[in-house]
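Escalation from tier 1.

The customer reports that the assembly of two entities below gives different structure tokens on two consecutive runs. Tier 1 could not reproduce it. I'm attaching the input and our single run for tier 2 to review.
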Amino acid sequence: MSFWLVLTVNSVTFGGLLFLLSAGFSLIFGLMRIPNLTHGSLFMLGAYVGATFVVGLLGFQLNFWLAAILAALTVAAAGALAERLLLRQLPGDQLAQVLVTLGLAFIIADGCIWIWGGDPMPLPVPAALGGAVRAFGFVFPFYRLVVVAIALLVALALWLGLERTRVGAMIRAGVDDMEMAAGMGLPVSRLFTTVFCLGAALAGMGGVLGGPILSVYPGLDTDMLPLALVVVILGGIGSLLGAFAGSFIIGFVYTFGQTLLPDLAYVILFLPMVLVLVLRPRGLFGTRAA
Amino acid sequence: MKLGAPVFAVALLLVPLIPSPYYVNVTSQILIAAVFASSLNLLVGYAGLTSLGHAAYLGVAAYAVAWLTTLGGLGHLAAALVALAVTTATAACFGVLALRGTGLAFLMITLALGQILWGVAYRWVSLTGGDNGITGLTRPRPFGFDLTSPGAFYYFTLAIAAPTVAAIALYVSSPLGAAVQGMRDQPRRMSALGHNVWMVRWLTFVFAGTGAGVAGILFVYYNQFIGPQTLNLTNSAEVLLMVISGGAGTVLGPIIGAATVVILKNVVSAYITRWVMLLGAVFVLIVVFMPDGLGPGLHRLWHTRSRSAS
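Tier 1 run:
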């Protein structure tokens, strides 16, 4: 398998993981108007919880997929708690809400070190998916293809959910004009919790799926959070299509940058963001300026 | 209150008489943090722009001094001046990008820029030494004074910190500072009055970066080491906590906040290793219960209590 093809497959896989992370981030930002700074932490928390179940730290081992679902649910519950107990206390004060999510991010980060220690935790690739697939004379690692397929399925499901269901229509209305939507009698409070939970669940699932590729370590949160920020700045706030396109663009830029110019990977990451900020501040697919 | 200022000044001068070098060093740390927090206060308190990447400027100045004096072979004064220039230039570039947005977009862009600089410090090993950072730099010897003792270094820090904080206070009370506060409250009206809102904000951003650069130079002299963790998000959040906890938009607030956070951090670190968790918890508590800061918050509590007592 040629070098460039490996890089491409890795880029697409990383883009898929980034989409799982930033789709929720972008929706929360679009609806609640806050960049949720716990999003990287939720990703990491999902990875740790998933690894705990898969490796069997609690005395029993679970199947990878079951662990992924349980981790997503755990993280969604944590997100719901944060939204209901804390963010809800500061209605309308977005800056305070963001600072609360920042405080929570530190609590989660340090809590993970407290519970799981400072050493990286291995999260093995599920046995059935460990192999490789032959196609067009090349060998592809099967697990990475599965991750990409899941990301695409999630993207399709989110798109259908937003475009074709009643709740989706309400969320879109809220993103477009929250005051008007609230005035029309939409259950704003329940929508906030729903979207926050959904975003948290996606981030948690992304963490588990990313575990075998990125491994699970303290600092995973602050590695992922800026990537989600860059994706959303690039794609446009509240836009699912923007999150999708942005994720794969950043997936490519980051993976190629890290391999070809490891010293400057972060500087290269900076370039698409700079270009968008200067030329099109509302992002590629955004409808309003950030 | 009129007696307060001279008493405070005399107290500052007498700090090195404390027999324990530990407390003198902690006070030096507070002074450095006070400069750092005061510079961020320009953005958070006066311009109404909450930055989550302020550690970047402290870090750039500290790395520049460390690199220039060890590998670059420059003298201390020249290195410090070049470092300030580099930091100001960085702030000038980042300001252009960050001010494409206001409010939360500004916060998000400053956070991303700060994390990218952290990534550069961490990954660009040939320039920054990567995770090991840069070691082996010495403290300067201004006019032949030896700054190795805690007391001497304290006076040096005070001699730099006090004028810097004064310059920030002067900026705030200048017409430019009045304009930036007007733009915090009524950007459209200020724009309609003919002020160039973007330019005034950008100048404030650059000045805040330079102020953090001064703190960075003192910081690297104090520690005689610089590593990538200085640029991380925790540090940017810590300085933001200093500003908010002390009371944003006041001259004394960030100084009180810096003292509170530095003392808390030193005390807590002596007993437990969970400083980051406590930082997060304090952050949440202050934002939820004392959004206007410890000073005004306690003041309010005191007044409501004394009023109900009388």
